[in-house]
Amino acid sequence: MSESEKAVEAHCGTAAATLILFSDRPDRPAEHLMIQRSAKLRFAPNALVFPGGQVDEDDGLIATDARFVDVQVEDRVERSHRVAAIRETLEETGLAVGFAQRGAVDVTAMQRALKEGALFSSLLATAGISLDMLALRPWAQWHPRLSHRRFDTRFYIARHDGDRTVRVDPDEVGRALWITAADAIAEAEAGLAKVIFPTLCNLERLAEHPNFTAADAHLATIECRPISPQLHDDDSGKSWISIPDDSGYPLTRRLLSTLQVP
Fold first, then answer.
1. Is 198:211 a contact under the CB 8 Å cutoff?
2. CA–CA distance, 208 with 180 (Å, rounded to integer)
């Protein structure tokens, strides 16, 4: 990593990646894979989220290795986030997304090996697998400050046409489900699911695009710029949280008291 890249990461915060999968259906809105975080986790226990997690050192190494990725796609930091989104989805759900060569790969064994501490790079090398960086489309980049830490969380969308069978890591995931964005919002409004602010915003945005093709076309109309939620009080003393109006989200301002806390 160059000194300039280190400076970028230090400024942006802890690197993390999230993957929103589209399982398209004829004449009906797409379903997305969501997971309920384990009750044992410190941050957002029991929250309904999309698969994802922090970028690790091995993700960065993969992002610079032409055996595994097309190193001409974007810059190293961006590729590292995409690798992390693929790896975390495999770890948490057992789904292989963005594998350029799939063949007879034992995905279950790879998930188990990751759980036991194997490096993703070693598993890719052994199986002869490369990753398709272009299978993931940049959806949003959030820079929230949570628990005195700032994060550089990049959201991606990807099409998933294969087997929807999910095998969760019980240490991190309470349950997994395929659900439409509208139904996930309804569960949150009914108090049946815990959905934190960034997830809620993204569900509302997804609900406006019924399938992957529509969502991908929407991306061409929006500049993907970092979003840093801002807190402010109105004249009556009520606290609000807001994001930029031109970031592609239908609702950009909410009373803090109406939101579910992490």
1. no
2. 11
pTM of the model: 0.91
Give the integer Cα–Cα distance in Å for 130 and 55. Answer: 18
pLDDT in tens, 16-43: 999 999 999 999 999 999 998 866 666 7
111: pLDDT strictly greater than 70: yes
What is the pLDDT, as a whole number, of residue 8? 43
- Helix, strand, or coil (residue 76): helix
Domains of the chain: 3-218 (3.90.79.10)
CA-based end-to-end distance of the chain: 32
* Residue 205 one-letter amino acid: R
**Residue (of 237, 235, 236, 230) closest to 254 by Cα position:** 230
Question: Hey, which residues does 48 pair with through a beta bridge?
Answer: 36
How remote is the C-alpha of 94 from its chain's centroid? 15
The CA-CA-CA angle for residues 49, 54, 56, to 5°, reads: 155
Task: Provide the pLDDT for residue 113.
Answer: 97
> Is residue 196 within 8 Å of 259, Cβ to Cβ?
yes
pLDDT digit string (tens) for 57-101? 999 999 999 999 999 999 999 999 999 999 999 999 999 999 986
Question: Degrees (nearest 5) of the Cα angle 15, 137, 33?
Answer: 80
The pair of three-digit structure tokens given for residue 159, joined into one six-digit string: 């099409």
Contact indicator for 36, 95 with CB cutoff of 8 Å: no
Structure tokens given for 132: 């398709």
Amino acid at 209: H
Which pLDDT belongs to residue 10? 46
- Cα–Cα distance, 17 to 155 (Å, whole number): 6
